[in-house]
Design goal:
Shape: elongated
Largest sheet: 7 strands, mixed
Helix content: 25-40%
Length: about 375
């Protein structure tokens, strides 16, 4: 004899503004059948969330007949009530995006402060996608995503987006992931390289509470981003992985009193092992055939990127007296992060590290000579 499995009591997660604003209208979200749960994500117009479905409607009073297949809400003595399509009362699970979404950050991050901050992501690949999602989870409220690349199957083993996003612009796939974390986030996408972004986009988006983060596979984009950051007075960060991600590098500069990325590039010269796809323009065909541009496995890329993300959160809170800094002031402007010092993975460059998982804290960046000094030298 088979026992019939009892279905769970129907429940509804819904935004508290339905009650506070006495909302009447359509509900968008999704229904999870095996848990008998309705998740209301959006009210009314649904342009920002095309992946959501029309799952219900709220009326002023309980209607005489229920809409077929839809969740029905109505007000009774000032309180919202929900019934499923069969008329069975649902358990209410109200939520507030600010209070509930970031409740686990309380005491560590201030939601009101973080929601005013922004991030410009130059590159939305394996590095940029992870930074974007970590900052969204930390409460950053504004994102400008810049990338002209399309997600392919070869990206899936390292990217934060998945199979259903293949063929989409990486910017748009990452945007949807951000909105799944924080539906109220402002996300602007530019499906082009940073040099092609209209300057008015930066004028409208950027301010002193915004950080520019370069995570693309070339330094020219970071140099251009550096100029934008200087003009606006924003901090800048550049993140890159070395061959096969045996190590990675993180550079940052604040708006005042520090050498910037241009100074860093002058001092660095050709000393970095960072993977740079643009280098193919400077190699001959024989070198190009031998070259391997694969940045490594996800877990190694993520180790470098998570450290950079923690530093980015510190930088966004640099003027917040109620925030306890984790890395800012401890890491130097140019930080190397080692995944392994085994030459079998990193070649002879791996031998510069003393042990696996080493994070350097002592490399100093100097100002580049002025133009007159460069000419003299």
């Amino acid at each position: 004899m088979e026992l019939t499995k009892l279905q769970r009591e129907p429940s509804v997660y819904y935004p508290t503004e339905i009650e506070t604003k006495h909302y009447n209208g359509d509900l968008y979200g999704f229904y999870v059948e095996n848990t008998n749960t309705y998740n209301v994500v959006s009210l009314g117009e649904n342009e920002r969330f095309p992946m959501l479905k029309h799952i219900g409607v709220v009326n002023e009073n309980r209607p005489e007949s229920l809409s077929e297949g839809l969740l029905t809400g109505y007000f009774e003595e000032g309180k919202i009530r929900f019934v499923n399509p069969m008329g069975k009362p649902c358990k209410n699970e109200p939520y507030s995006l600010k209070m509930d979404l970031f409740s686990r950050n309380v005491g560590i991050l201030e939601s009101d402060v973080m929601l005013k901050t922004g991030a410009v992501l130059v590159g939305c690949g394996s590095v940029g996608s992870l930074v974007a999602l970590e900052l969204a989870k930390a409460g950053v409220g504004r994102f400008l995503l810049i990338d002209n690349d399309i997600l392919g199957y070869h990206n899936l083993c390292r990217h934060q987006c998945g199979l259903l996003d293949v063929g989409r612009y990486k910017t748009e796939a990452v945007r949807d992931r951000i909105l799944q974390i924080n539906p109220s986030a402002k996300v602007v996408v530019q499906n082009c390289i940073i040099q092609e972004v209209p300057l008015k986009v930066f004028d409208e988006f950027c301010d002193k509470d915004t950080i520019v983060i370069g995570g693309a596979d070339n330094r020219q984009g970071d140099l251009y981003a550096n100029q934008i950051a200087k003009e606006v007075g924003m901090p800048l960060m550049s993140i890159g992985c070395w061959e096969r991600a045996f190590a990675g590098e993180i550079f940052y500069c604040l708006p005042q009193g520090m050498p910037d990325y241009e100074d860093f590039m002058y001092a660095l010269g050709d000393a970095s092992g960072r993977v740079n796809q643009n280098r193919k323009f400077y190699t001959n065909e024989e070198e190009l055939e031998k070259a391997s541009f694969e940045p490594g496995i996800s877990v190694d890329i993520d180790f470098v990127t998570v450290i950079a993300s923690k530093l980015a959160i510190d930088i966004l809170n640099r003027d917040n007296p109620n925030y306890t800094q984790r890395l800012l002031g401890h890491l130097s402007q140019y930080t190397l992060v080692c995944n392994t010092n085994n030459p079998k993975v990193g070649g002879e460059n791996a031998e510069i590290f003393s042990y696996p998982l080493q994070v350097t804290t002592s490399i100093q960046v100097e100002y580049a000579p002025k133009e007159t000094e460069k000419e003299t030298n």
